[in-house]
Amino acid sequence: MAFLSRCVSRKLVATPGGWLLSQSRMASHSAAVGAHGHGQVATHGGHDSHGHGHVPAYRAAIGNREVVGYGWDGEPSYGDSVVWPYPAVRFQEPSAAFQSVIQKEKADWRNLSIDDKKKLYRYNYCETFSEMLAPTGVWKNITAIVIFWMTLGLWAFITLKKVYGPLPETFDDEHRLAQLKRMIDLRVGAVDGLASKWDYEKGRWKE
């Protein structure tokens, strides 16, 4: 249930492609690192509903999540990736449930308990490397699609056999050889076609 709730929460952050992108490109590709390694990203924005203060445009997409770095491509976005496991924003928004561990994070990490470290990880990230690398079961969908098309092709083949019946007698070997002999006698393709490969003096194919 805990993992299911994380996945539901993740949908608030990630798009169907796995990324939540801000509404505008960053105005600058640099991030100023704060005292605790938390970067502040500058971009174009507007004012709040009361007309007070500057509100970055990407805030509409990421909410109150803290921007902590450059990320994948300079966008204030979140995404789980084993290739680049450093999203630009934290996975969770600050809340009362995380306040205690957030304060502990600012102190000596040796004082953190195992539960604190796990909670802090879930505050920053949605999935662990084990969860990202776990089998997804996509092969089942691929196998089902392949079997479906094979079955459809077999069904079409059987149906056509029953609808059209047996092939005409001109398709048997005897009639096909007779047709080939007639084409040779008529010298079809005498220049560079079929007849050009037949030796009329020896009565056989040229070597």
UniProtKB/TrEMBL annotation:
GO terms for biological process: mitochondrial electron transport, cytochrome c to oxygen. Keywords: Membrane, Mitochondrion, Mitochondrion inner membrane, Oxidoreductase, Transit peptide, Transmembrane, Transmembrane helix. Pathway: Energy metabolism; oxidative phosphorylation. Its main location: mitochondrion. It is found in: Mitochondrion inner membrane. GO terms for molecular function: oxidoreductase activity. InterPro entries: Cyt_c_oxidase_su4, Cyt_c_oxidase_su4_fam, Cyt_c_oxidase_su4_sf. It comes from the Eukaryota. Component of the cytochrome c oxidase (complex IV, CIV), a multisubunit enzyme composed of 14 subunits. This is Cytochrome c oxidase subunit 4. The chain crosses the membrane at residues 138-158. One of its GO terms (cellular component) is respiratory chain complex IV. PANTHER family: CYTOCHROME C OXIDASE SUBUNIT 4 (PTHR10707:SF10), CYTOCHROME C OXIDASE SUBUNIT IV (PTHR10707). Component of the cytochrome c oxidase, the last enzyme in the mitochondrial electron transport chain which drives oxidative phosphorylation. The keyword Transit peptide applies. Belongs to the cytochrome c oxidase IV family. It is a single-pass membrane protein.
